[in-house]
Amino acid sequence: MTTEQDCLALDAADPLAAQRVQFALPDGVIYLDGNSLGARPKASLQRAQQVIAAEWGDDLIRSWNTAGWYDLPRRLGNLLAPIVGAAADEVVVTDTTSVNLFKALAAAIKMQADHPGRAGRRVIITERDNFPSDIYMAEGLLGWLERGYQLKLLESWSDLPAALSGEAGQQVAVVMLTHVNYRTGRMFDMTATTAQIHAAGALAIWDLAHSAGAVPVALNAANADFAVGCTYKYLNGGPGSPAFIWVPQRHHAQFAQPLTGWWTHRQPFAMQPAYAPVAGIGRALCGTQPVVSLALVECGLEIFGQVAMAALRAKSLALSDLFIALLEEHCAGHPLELITPRAHAERGSQVSVMHPHGYAVMQALIARGVIGDYREPQVMRFGFTPLYTSYQDVWRAVMVLKDILDRSDYQVDAKRDAVT
Amino acid sequence: MTTEQDCLALDAADPLAAQRVQFALPDGVIYLDGNSLGARPKASLQRAQQVIAAEWGDDLIRSWNTAGWYDLPRRLGNLLAPIVGAAADEVVVTDTTSVNLFKALAAAIKMQADHPGRAGRRVIITERDNFPSDIYMAEGLLGWLERGYQLKLLESWSDLPAALSGEAGQQVAVVMLTHVNYRTGRMFDMTATTAQIHAAGALAIWDLAHSAGAVPVALNAANADFAVGCTYKYLNGGPGSPAFIWVPQRHHAQFAQPLTGWWTHRQPFAMQPAYAPVAGIGRALCGTQPVVSLALVECGLEIFGQVAMAALRAKSLALSDLFIALLEEHCAGHPLELITPRAHAERGSQVSVMHPHGYAVMQALIARGVIGDYREPQVMRFGFTPLYTSYQDVWRAVMVLKDILDRSDYQVDAKRDAVT
Predict the structure, then answer these.
(1) What angle do CA B91, B95, B98 make, to 5 degrees?
(2) pTM
(3) A49-305, what's its fold?
(4) Using CB atoms, which residue from B268, B270, B290 is nearest to A290?
(5) Digit-coded pLDDT (tens) for A87-103
(6) CATH of domain B4-31+308-407
(7) Cβ atoms within 10 Å, residue B144
(8) Which positions does UniProt annotate for pyridoxal 5'-phosphate binding (chains A, B) (predicted)?
(9) Coil, helix or strand at residue B324
(10) Where in chain B is the domain with CATH 3.40.640.10?
(11) Which residues of A are catalytic?
C-alpha cells in the first residue's frame, strides 16, 4: 500500500517541486483542472499592469511598435515552438483554436484540391469522439464548399487504418485528429498515425489542445501537416487566451486560407486594395489581436523555458500512475471505471474515470476543494500538471474521493445522473 | 480670429469636460489618435487585477460561471447595443472585426442564395477606398465559394446609385460599406443608403469601426441588415480588444455562418457530435474568447452609459469645426488639403488633411507630443474624442502644426514622401 509518507517522499525528491511557487494557487484547493484552465503564473499580474498602465495608458498607439505588440503573435509562436517540436517561424499565437482549425482544414483541403493526383478526394475523416467544436467547425466549413465534401466520423480511433485502406482510402483528403482526447485522455502515436495517413495520400491535421505543455510533441519529427492548439490549458496563458497554429516550412508556399485579414498582407500599412499574402507563417494570422490577453501568454511560456519536457512527462506519468494506483487501493469497491489507457504511450496528462453519478460526485469533490471537472457522459476528469501538482495533492484528492464515495456524500440530481 | 482664450471658454462651458478625469492620459501629450487606439479608462487597471488575481487566480475554472465569463460576449453586447441603435440580444462582443465581417458576409450571401428571387445574384459591392482588410476578407471568402461570386470595387462612394440601378443592380447580392471612412472621415447616410441597397434587392452590411462611440448610429432605425465594428477605437476597450457583430432580430432565424464553433451550439456542454445551432445572436459567436481583454471592454462601455450620444456628437463636431477653422486661420499658406467633408452630415469624428510630406510632418508632430497618425497616401489623420479631448488641445495641436510647417521643421524621407 502507498502511504501519504510515500507521497511526501516523492515530493521531497521531485526536481520540479520548486516550480510551484511561480503559480498563484488559492489555499485549501487541490487543483486538478489545469487541463481545462491552467493556474495563474504569479508574473501575470505585473505583466498585465505593464501592458495596461505603461504600454496602453502612457505610450498609447506608439506601443504597436515600441512595445512590440505587432510582433507578439510571431514572438510568442517562437517561444511556443520548441514545446511542440516546431521550428522557428512556423507557429503564431492568434485567434481561437476553432478559428485556427478552420484555417488549417481549409488550407489542407485546398492543397489536396490543387494536387494533380488527389484533386478528386472528397472525404474528411475525424473521430466521433473528437472534441465537438472541431467536428462543428469542419461541418461549418464543408457546408460552404460546393463540391460535395463529406465528413466521416470514425466510431473508434482504432477504425482509422480500415478507413484509410483500399478504395475508401483513395477518397480521403484530410484526417483531422485530436492528439490527446479531451474526454478519455487517450493519446495517439502521432508519428505512426501521420505515416498511415500519408501512406493513403491524405494530409494530417493535429489538434494539440490537450497536448501542448502536457506531453512531448514533435510535429516536425512526426512529419505532421498542420496543427492547432490552445494556450489556456497546460500552457497557463490565462482564461481564453489566444490559440496557436503551426504550419511547417515545407507547406508555407502553398498555404492559403480564407480568413485573409490585413495581418496576412505583405504590406498591411500600404493600404492597398489588392491582396498580396505575406510569405511564411504570417499567412495564418487574420486581424488585430487582443493584446492584453495575448501578452499574458508569455508568462506561462517563460516557465516552460525553464524546464525540460522529459522531466514534465516523467512527473506527469508518475502522478497519473499514482492516482490510478491509489484509486485501486482505496476505492476498489465503488463503481468506478477507468477510461484512460494504462499504457504510458497512450496516455496524456489526465485520468478520466466514469461513475454512474459522476456529475454529483464531481460537485461533491469541488465543494470540498478538489477541483476536477465533468464531461458527459458520467466522466470525471482529473488533470495532472507537473508544474504545480504535488504527489501529496494526488493523495489528498483520492482520500477525499474515497470519503465521498464511502459515505455516498453527494447529491444525485436525477436530471443529470442517468444510472446505468 | 479664434484665440486660445476662446478655446478655454469653450472648455469651461463644456458639459463633457468632467469625463476626461476617467481616462489615464500621459502628461505632455495631446492625443488625437483615439480613432486608432482609444485612451485608457482608469478603471481598467483595477478591473484587470480583479479578473487576473481573483477570478482567474483564486476562483480558477469556476469563474466561467461565477464571474460570468461565459456571458461576457452577450452582456457586453447588450451594453454596446444602445450606442449603435441595436436592440437587446442583437449584439455580441467577440473575435475580431475581420472575422466578424467574414461571418456577416457569409450569412448575407447565404440569405440571398436561399431567397427565391435573388438566388442568381453573384455580385458583392464595396468601395475601393474601404478599409483594405474588409476588401481582403471579402476576397478571401468569395475565393472559397465556387459559384462565381465577384467583388466589385466602386471607384467612388458616389458611384453606388449607378451600380445598383438597371440590369447591373439585379446582379448585386450584398453591399458592404464602412460607415465612416478610415482615411477621409467621410460618413455615409446609413438610412438613405440602406434604402437604396434594399430597393435594388440587395442586403446592406455596415462596418462601424470608425462609428461606434464616434457618431450617432441607428442600425434598427436604418433597417440595416448586418453590422460589425471595433471596440478599441472610440469605445476605449483596450489594444486589440474583441470586436462586435450585430444581427437584427428579424434575421436571427435565417442567420447561418461557417465558423460554427461550440459557442454557437444549442448545448455546448452536452458534447454532442451533431451540430445544432443555438437560437438568436449566439449563432454569431464561435470559440472561447480572451477573457482578460474582453472584460476590459466593459470599462469603456461604462463611461458611455453615463453620457448622451447627442452631447458627444455636438462636441465632436465643435472640435473638428474648430480644428478646420484654426487650420485655415493659421496654416493657410501651406499645401494642406482637407479631405474630410465640411458638411456635418457627412463627417465622422476625425479630420484628415493631405500634405506632400504628410508622413514627415506627422512624425514631427508626434515628436512634439501631438499624436495623430498617418495613412497612405500623404494623409495626416486627427481623431477627436469628446470624452477626453479639450478645445485647448485642438488649439495647441494646431499651433504646433503651424510651427512645424512655418519652420519646415520635419525630416523628409524620400522613400516615404512622394512630393506631388
Answers:
(1) 95
(2) 0.97
(3) Aspartate Aminotransferase; domain 2 (3.40.640)
(4) B290
(5) 999 999 999 999 999 99
(6) 3.90.1150.10
(7) 22
(8) 97-98, 131-134, 178, 207, 210, 232, 262, 288
(9) helix
(10) 49-305
(11) 131, 207, 232-233, 381
